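Lay summary. Proteins are chains of building blocks that fold into shapes, and those shapes determine what they do. In this project we predict the shape from the chain. Here is one chain we studied, written as its sequence of building blocks.
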Amino acid sequence: MAVLVDLRSDLLSPPTPSMIRAMSAAMRRPQVFGLREDKQQRALEERVADLTAMEDALLFPTCTMANQAAIQTLCRPGRTVLLDATSHIATSEAGGPAALAGLTLQPVPAERGRMDPAALAAALAAPADALRARPGLIVLENTHNRSGGGVLPPSYHRRVRRLAAGAGIPIHLDGARLFNAAVAAGRPVRDFTRPMTSVALSLNKGLCAPLGAMLAGPKGFIAEALAVRQRLGGGIRPTGAVAAAGLIAIETMIDRLGQDHANAKRLARALAEIGVACEDVETNLVVVLTEAFGIEAAASVRRLADAGLLALAFGPGRIRLAVHRGIGRREIERTVRAFASVARPVRGGKGRGR
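And here is the predicted shape, written in a compact code that computers can read:
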């Protein structure tokens, strides 16, 4: 069956007409060679530095690369990175900290992306000796992907900052969807980023740019990250077209994220009406519990694809739906129909376990 709706990720958000026009205009201008020579790139970097209350910022191809560059720059090989075991850096970045930076990940007990402060303090205070790797970095993720777009409030960031400062180690924030957190909380982005040493931001999720991410932090840190980015193959040139779309994303697309949040909540309510349960929705991600199907998430996703809906299996018993600018009322109605066609045989007593 032809695909009617694709909810696998908000990186599928379509670019706006103004982005396409700006990219086209940038490609017609003379191109430059330097890694930070492009005027639009520099304008984007300066705008993001101001938005995050950081000294400098640097354009990257992807948020994963920005995360890995930050980790390599902030943490010495042989140290441990303290983080939630379900964070994107732990689950979805191909073992980058170990493979690229010689680091061990040390999970800390967490609830919806919030590491338990007492457990984090204990990990930071563990006695140092020659037999154990010492903590070198704390990583937070906001919004928290595996918690269905859960928001960590600025007060939690500040609490972690106090613990990190006491131990003398930096904090990196994976803020791929930080703009969603800011909009949901009704707070400026800098309220979330001020307690951090560095922050990575995605431009091509809800903000709709077709490519790009940013890494922000102190000037010396960004100067080192520039070399790491080059080492990782991220020194893309020319950058004018990417930066042009990114500037429009930053200037015009943040406030509209509230529409995605409203549509996600509308979708969750509609699914509940047909007996399909969802976790609490805070931002633009809807996590569906496959109990209504009587089958695991991977099999459920295959059945939904047959019904014209693409979704993401999110571990046992969970499916993630990502709402973005390309998803409106019509797509929500189609999504609900697809779920109804898959869940109905189970509610009727047929097809369980198939």
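What the prediction tells us: Confidence is low (pLDDT under 50) at residues 345-354.
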